[in-house]
Amino acid sequence: MRDSFLGKRIRGGGYAIKGAWLLLRHEASIQVQFGIAIIVTISGIYFEITKTEWLFQFTAIGMVMAAEGLNSAIEALADFVHPDLHSKIGHIKDVAAGGVFFAALIAVIIGGFIYLPYIF
Ligand SMILES: Nc1ncnc2c1ncn2[C@@H]1O[C@H](COP(=O)(O)OP(=O)(O)OP(=O)(O)O)[C@@H](O)[C@H]1O
Q1: Which regions of the chain are under pLDDT 50?
Q2: What value of ipTM does the predicted structure carry?
Q3: Residue 68 annotated among the catalytic residues of the structure
Q4: Binding residues for ATP, per the UniProt record (predicted)?
């Protein structure tokens, strides 16, 4: 069972859950995004948003959390491979952060489309 196809998939899922827990415990950027996810979830309940709006909201939350998690992994890898200052490392980290920026920008636009009509 341990080395079977299913056993490997289950173990992979376990590592992924461990990684998600590590992100939530140690990464400030993920903690901030998780806090925002809780606030918008409470807002969704408060404003009784529609099923379609929930789908867009959860998609946006997942997109930003995934981007932040991958950015944290790239930062950690870069620091491990080259702990000293280097323009290439700076470029790699900036590009990874740029990916998070795209995800966050789209999430803010989705949030605006959902909540501005409820608020104004
Ligand atoms: N080793 C390095 N060499 C050159 N520039 C770096 C290096 N490390 C960081 N930088 C620059 O500093 C910026 C911030 O990097 P840093 O690793 O501190 O990210 P951060 O978003 O502040 O993450 P965290 O708060 O999780 O440490 C990078 O985007 C890059 O421009």
Answers
A1: none
A2: 0.89
A3: yes
A4: 15, 27, 75, 93-94
CATH class name, domain 28-119: mainly alpha
pLDDT tens string 109-120: 999 999 999 999
Q: Which two tokens stand for residue 32?
A: 């901030």
pTM of the full predicted structure?
0.90
C-beta of 94 in contact with ligand 1 (< 6 A): yes
Burial of 31 (0-12, 13-18, 19+ CB in 10 A): middle
Which ligand 1 atom sits closest to the C-alpha of 86? 3
Q: 31, 32, 71, 75: which to mutate for ligand 1, most atoms within 8 A of CB?
A: 75
**How far apart are alpha carbons 60 and 18 in whole angstroms?**
23
